[in-house]
Specification:
By secondary structure, the chain is α/β, with parallel strands linked by helices. It is built from seven helices and eight strands; from the N terminus they run ββαβαβαβαβαβααβ. The protein has helices at 38-47, 65-73, 96-109, 133-152, 170-179, 188-193, 198-205; strands at 2-3, 15-16, 52-54, 78-86, 113-118, 156-159, 183-187, 209-213. It has a six-stranded parallel beta sheet. The radius of gyration is 17 Å and the shape is globular.
Length: 218
Amino acid sequence: MYRSSGLQDTRSTSMKIAGAPISWGVCEVPNWGYQMTPERVLTEMKQIGLTATEFGPQGWLPIEAEARATEVKKYGLKPVGAFFLSVMHDPDFDPIPMVNKELDAFEAAGGDYLILATDSGRDGYDDRPVLDEAGWKTLFTNLDQIREVCASRNVTACLHPHWGTMVQNRDEVIRVLENSSIGLCLDTGHLACGGTDVVELVRKYANRVDIVHAKDVH
């Protein structure tokens, strides 16, 4: 779900529903399992009445901007944006060139939201390093810079707290919100797994929520 106006006043809020390839099991994790083709997933999205979609993990749709635009337009779906996994805590790595390359695809294919996940730099989501203060400072700086780069190209960058990334647990989510200007992708599943009370978080930081990943959480 993504918003077309502010969340503070529910009388003026218009919510829109989109799909995402992850609901069909399409995932960026190596050896995750059988990965359905874009043709099948996008066709089924259209068949069940969805009118918009995220792009899915990097490489599932064509990386090249014009080719991606062509692929999505075949199904008449509006691109919402993309889940974007990148290392942001390493002072020796600059994520901005990767961000700009993805924004090039947005310009050609459409998309309003770059949904950032803070990659640990390791394969999969089973292990992650512990950040020191320099790592946190680098992360905050990169998030702010990415937000500014995206805004200059009319795209909203927001952080997706995600299990197995550098922003996973409740205290990490709060630390980012208190020390950067980045907006929030409110993923009810990943936040709950990380020990966050989602309702409490929204009550305090409603003005930071840009997009919602709605999950059925037990």
